[in-house]
């Protein structure tokens, strides 16, 4: 289990809010820190993959449980 530096609850938010909140959270973090995001928007899986590619942040993992999506992003 990896150390989580910050957690973002994006449940109930729809695109583009989960990504916008993620950007805000990452802005407050330092390089190498881990952000855990929990979202319910099915589009979030694609959004976070694209976001990671575009921003250079590392999408460590993503999983789905009970209609919730969990992402772990490592700040570049």
SSE layout and pairings?
Layout: E1 6-10, H1 17-27, E2 34-39, H2 44-55, E3 58-65, E4 68-74
Helical fraction? 25-40%
What is the gyration radius calculated from CA atoms?
A: 11 Å
Total number of β-strand segments?
4
How would you name the CATH homologous superfamily?
TusA-like domain
Spatial order of strands in the largest sheet = 1-2-4-3
Instruction: Give the topology string: H per helix, E per strand.
Output: EHEHEE
Q: What summary fits the major beta sheet?
A: 4 strands, mixed
| CATH architecture name | 2-Layer Sandwich
CATH fold category name: Translation Initiation Factor IF3
Count of separate DSSP helical elements: 2
Beta fraction: 25-35%
Low-confidence stretches: none
> How many domains, as an integer?
1
Can you walk me through this structure?
The protein has 76 residues and is an alpha+beta fold. It has one domain (6-74): TusA-like domain (Translation Initiation Factor IF3, 2-Layer Sandwich), CATH 3.30.110.40. The chain is 30% helix and 34% strand. Strand 1 (6-10), helix 1 (17-27) and strand 2 form a beta-alpha-beta unit. It is globular and about 30 Å long. The two termini are 20 Å apart.
Summarize this structure as a short list of keywords or feature phrases.
single chain, four-stranded mixed beta sheet, 76 residues, alpha+beta, 34% strand, Translation Initiation Factor IF3, 4 strands
Give a quick precis of the structure.
The protein is α+β, with helices and mostly antiparallel strands. It has 2 helices and 4 strands.
């Amino acid at each position: 289990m990896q150390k989580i530096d910050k957690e973002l609850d994006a449940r109930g938010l729809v695109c583009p809010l989960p990504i916008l909140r993620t950007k805000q959270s990452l802005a407050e973090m330092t390089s190498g820190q881990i952000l855990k995001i929990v979202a319910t928007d099915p589009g979030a899986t694609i959004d976070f993959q694209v976001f990671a590619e575009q921003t250079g942040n590392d999408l460590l993992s993503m999983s789905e449980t009970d209609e919730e999506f969990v992402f772990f992003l490592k700040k570049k």
